[in-house]
Amino acid sequence: MHLPIVAHPDYSFPFPAGHRFPMDKFGLLQQRMRELGILKQHNLFQPTPCSAAELSMAHSYHYIQRFSIDALSDQELRRMGLPWSEGLRQRTFLAPNGTLLTAELALKYGVACHLAGGTHHAHYDFGSGFCIFNDLAYAARQLIHSGKAKRILIFDCDVHQGDGTARILEDDPEVFTCSIHCEKNFPHRKAISDLDVGLEKGLGDGDYLKTVEETLLQVIEQAQPELVIYDAGVDVYANDPLGLLNITLDGIRARDKSVINTCLKLKIPIATVIGGGYDEDQIALAARHAIVIEEAAKLFI
Ligand SMILES: [Zn+2]
User: Fold this and answer.
1) The dihedral of CA 48, 51, 56, 62: what is its sign?
2) Average pLDDT in the 220-242 region?
3) Among 41, 45, 125, 273, whose CB has the most other CB atoms within 10 angstroms?
4) Which residues form the Histone deacetylase domain (predicted)?
């Protein structure tokens, strides 16, 4: 068996050139995983689109419908940060089920990776910061509801706080939300996760890795999860235009390796999502997102 990988050809779609959001990165990441020999036909799993009824597990039905028919106001679209299009609609209904499928595969095989996901700024009834539907909250609620897991840890290492996830799941005792982020970064009004670790601007590899490792052990002890959903955002990278930390590529690799290995050593299945990452050079960006999948794939050699 190879590492189970979840992806879909519609994750990237024709998108306005020069937009701040790197929409091509999903397709480029799939291409990179193929080039590395990690993604083949037999370990590729494709999600099907969510229905509005399914998504209402984590979102207001009215909001889902209004997004679906392009009826959001200009103000709502500005906050979301992405221009509406049919392509955007399609990928937005696919990705939450991609994370759910990844989690189900992780429960079966121990580890699985989604080549998208981590839209943690999406709230119950509005989108924000390039996020429309919250795949993390949706997948966690679906798994609890179906009885596939009784306790879940969402371990969010994107450089920005997982505010939407924290708010949607604030009254869900079965799901523990942990966000390790740069304190002086978006969103400026923070939500309250079950555990928040706000990092100083400019933090480097050594202190960062120590914090991630200690925090993971602490929240596993506290939450006793049957599954970890890991947001491996690479916007912690030193040269990321939207991150304010000083983490190197080796630091990202050490982080991802440590999180995956800690979970597996404790026999806790882990599902990874790529989270945030920004760069005008989307090929270089896709290579950064590939790191977590490369580290997971090493377990299957
Ligand atoms: Zn981010």
Assistant:
1) positive
2) 98
3) 273
4) 19-290
Give residue 120 CA to ligand 1 midpoint distance, Å: 8
Residues β-bridged to residue 229: 154, 271
Task: Give me 193's structure tokens.
Answer: 């996760």
Q: What is the pLDDT of residue 152?
A: 98
Gap from CA of 108 to ligand 1 centroid (Å): 29
Q: What's the topology of domain 21-300?
A: Arginase; Chain A (3.40.800)
In which element (H, E) is residue 205 found? helix 205-223
Ordered by start, the domain boundaries in the chain are 21-300
Residues 6 or more apart whose Cβ sits within 8 Å of residue 263: 111, 216, 220, 228, 230, 269, 270
CA of 130 to the centre of ligand 1 (A): 9
Give pLDDT tens digits for 252-291.
999 999 999 999 999 999 999 999 999 999 999 999 999 9
pLDDT, average across residues 110-117: 98
Query: Please, what sign has the CA dihedral across residues 145, 217, 255, 240?
Result: positive
Give the separation between CA 284 and CA 287, rounded to whole angstroms: 5
Structural tokens at position 65: 């419908």
Token pair recorded at residue 216: 């993971």
Nearest CA to 280 out of 23, 92, 82, 32 is that of: 23
Centroid of ligand 1 to alpha carbon of 157 (angstroms): 9
Average pLDDT over residues 202-224: 98
